[in-house]
Specification:
With 182 residues, the protein is an alpha/beta fold. It has a domain of 98 residues: Dihydrofolate Reductase, subunit A, CATH 3.40.430.10. 26% of the residues lie in helices and 31% in strands. It is built from 6 helices and 10 strands; from the N terminus they run E-E-H-H-E-H-E-E-H-E-H-E-E-H-E-E. The strands form 2 sheets. The chain has an 8-stranded mixed β-sheet. A two-stranded antiparallel ribbon has the order 2-8. It is globular and about 40 Å long.
Length: 182
């Protein structure tokens, strides 16, 4: 039984991409510059840790540098040695099957864990039936290529989830809040 609740929170384009070609995220930045936080501050305030893939971690390192983490951050990577220079005690590099990683996190954490990114991480969690909630913010942007969140259409990928709420924002984003069926 899971002691932690895994919540994925992300913006995707209308055609299902997390990132554009070559990992481009500039299309999403305009939504961050609005005065709307889309519930992120509240979610972060109720979060005990963060789980992300190495590509998301690399993106954050490039954007923010080696700024200290406010929460324990678990980074899934198959190459921990490439991060030898990272000394933040809140950063934990983990590897192995996703169910074993989550079992280990369950031994050390309780409460909500924010899954910050990585289509591969999200797919693994869904395949292992470990993801509890998916909060997607669908933008009106059509990217036509890049890093797709799912390899199939959204409803098929989230077949084990129930759409609980849909909420439009004046910025054009539409939040779709899905919860895993019991």
């Amino acid at each position: 039984m899971t002691m932690i609740e895994l919540v994925f929170f992300a913006a995707i384009s209308a055609d299902g991409y997390l990132a554009g070609p070559d990992g481009d995220m500039s299309w999403a930045e305009k939504y961050l510059n609005s005065d709307e936080d889309y519930g992120f501050v509240e979610l972060l305030g109720s979060t005990s840790a963060v789980l992300m893939g190495s590509k998301t971690f690399d993106f954050e390192l490039e954007a923010m540098g080696a700024e200290p983490r406010a929460l324990p951050t678990y980074v899934l990577t198959n190459n921990q040695m490439r991060y030898d220079g990272i000394t933040d005690p809140f950063v934990h590099f983990v590897s192995g099957p996703i169910d074993a990683v989550i079992d280990e996190m369950n031994r050390h954490l309780k409460g909500r864990v924010l899954v910050m990114g990585g289509a591969d991480v999200v797919r693994q969690l869904i395949d292992a039936e470990l993801l509890d909630q998916v909060r997607l913010f669908i933008t009106p942007d059509v990217l036509g290529g890049g890093r797709a969140l799912f390899e199939q259409e959204l409803e098929g990928a989230l077949a084990a989830f129930t759409l609980e709420e849909t909420r439009p924002f004046r910025t054009g984003l539409v939040e779709r809040d899905y919860r895993k069926r019991s």
